[in-house]
Amino acid sequence: MPPSDADNPLECFMAGLRKRNPGEDAFHQAVEEVARDVMPWYLEHDELRQAQVLERLTEPDRIISFRVTWETDSGEVRSDRAWRVQFSNTLGPYKGGLRFDKSVTQGVLKFLGFEQVFKNALTGLPMGGAKGGSNFNPRGKSDREVMRFCKSLMTELRRHIGEHVDVPAGDIGVGRREIGYLFGEYVRLENRWGGVLTGKDEHNGGSAIRTEATGYGCVYFAAEVLQHAGGSIEGKRVAISGAGNVASFAAEKAIQMGARVVTMSDSDGVAVFDDGMTEEHLADLREVKNKENGRVSDFAEGRSGVEYRGGEKPWRVACDVAMPCATQNELDDDDAQRLLEGGLALVCEGSNMPLTAGAARHVRDARVPHAPGKASNAGGVAVSGLEMTQNAMRLSWSREEVDERLRKIMREIHGQCVAEGEHEGRVDYVRGANLAAFKKVAQSTLERGVV
To answer: What integer pLDDT is reported at residue 2 of this predicted model?
Structure first.
């Protein structure tokens, strides 16, 4: 007879989680990835099981949901929904981005908040995990419409945040413009200046290289993985998905370190650089993307050395390093198989959970190193943590100093992954990251008692 769920602790746990959180597939996927790796260790520690630490760490401390009402330029009243998922403050104040996009749901924010808990733990900085956002879509909206929305959102969000409580940041759809509007309204309403948001403009207390940090950090992590395996990032073919901040600055740093960037993309298609992307290509692509509704196809049209493939993903292009930097579950089973056939040597995630569960299985079975987002894209929140420190101390560090601190943090995260994931001459980076982070958060949770 096949084993029942009771005979399989992972399946038993996941069945309960799915029942409590119906219809939240991304959240289920994120939890299962962590639970699969930590379950053997967890079951060996009776004090953790008796305290139900795993169950507690998969339940947010609280979810705040509220309406955001605003006016268009033409005077029409619109209403959107916003959330803040405060997942865990075990290691420090809640910390995590705000996302404005039509795809935002409570389930997506729970998945992102859960990942954020462990990502923040790996940085070594005193930060808990949270995520928030709205189904408001800033695309096509005027600056004044975005400003009105942000000010309306902050009238409620301000009740739930603070330097020692919860410090939001930017994410998809929330850049320096939106952070500026949110921060300005917070200061006006509270009548005080406080480091309650990160990702601010440097004139408003922001940190140098915060915009670049996620992309830069991802490349620094990839370089550490390749160096640990006896190689180098120099000369490697790097396929990057996306064309936003993370992808753009990952491409910039990869080019600076001597890699050959072979793709950039958006939801419509992919630009392929047979001889490698140049700094001039990158500058031109940024200029196009900064225009309203600018697309990768606009950049590629008629440009020498660039082939545009409409309706395709980057993963059909042979590469040594796949660096997905767009969104969750963008790389599926077939994509993984194609990459492996093309000589893939490393997957290094710039976005959160960009591989489907099946794709991740293919990569793991092929024994190809897979750097998960909670480790490889932690550079953004690491520099956000450094911004919190600079705000608290009323000082600012130079670009060079912040960059050096970022490199050091990424190197230390890599070391944690190796320490927990190395076995029989290879490193399982997913397992290493999950175990290193979970052990830290679990022990802290236990020490707090039943709360």
So the answer is: 41
260-266 and 237-240: which strand pairing?
parallel
| Contacts for 276 with CB less than 8 Å, ≥ 6 apart | 255, 260, 261, 262
Whether the pLDDT of residue 3 is over 50: the answer is no
Q: Show the tokens assigned to 288.
A: 């196009």
What value does the CA radius of gyration of the chain take, rounded to a whole number of Å?
21
Contact present, 346 and 223 (Cβ < 8 Å): no
157 closest CA partner among 117, 114, 186: 186
> Residue 284 has which token pair?
């031109």
Q: Give the residue carrying structure tokens 């490199």.
A: 407
Whole-Å CA distances, 294 to 192, 265, 272, 285, 325: 38, 12, 18, 9, 18
Question: Which residue, 448, 449, 436, is CA-closest to 90?
Answer: 448
The model's pLDDT over 294-324, given as tens digits with 9 standing for 90+, comes to: 999 999 998 989 999 999 999 999 999 999 9
Tens-digit pLDDT profile for residues 365-378: 999 999 999 999 99
What number of other Cβ atoms are within 10 A of residue 88's Cβ? Answer: 26
Contact 58, 32 (CB under 8 A): no
Catalytic residue among 110, 119, 131, 289: 131
Contact indicator for 241, 263 with CB cutoff of 8 Å: yes
Q: Is 131 a catalytic residue?
A: yes
Query: Contacts from 401-404 at CB under 8 Å and sequence distance 24+?
Result: 401/208, 402/207, 402/208, 402/209, 403/208, 403/209, 403/216
- DSSP state string for 16-68: HHHHHSTT-HHHHHHHHHHHHHHHHHHHT-HHHHHTTHHHHHTS-SEEEEEEE
Q: What is the pLDDT of residues 154-207, one digit of tens each?
A: 999 999 999 999 999 999 999 999 999 999 999 999 999 999 999 999 999 999
Residue 292 has pLDDT above 90, yes or no: no
Give the alpha-carbon dihedral of 158, 159, 164, 166, to 10 degrees. -70
Phi-psi region of 92 (alpha: psi -120 to 50; beta: other; left: phi over 0): left
What does the alpha-carbon distance between residue 405 and residue 176 come to, in Å, rounded to a whole number? 22
Distance CA 104, CA 81 (A): 9
Q: What is the largest CA-CA distance in the chain?
A: 67
Instruction: Please give the C-alpha separations between residue 345 and each of 231, 352, 426, 432, in angstroms, as whole numbers.
Output: 11, 20, 13, 18
Contacts of 201 (CB under 8 A, 6+ apart): 176, 179, 180
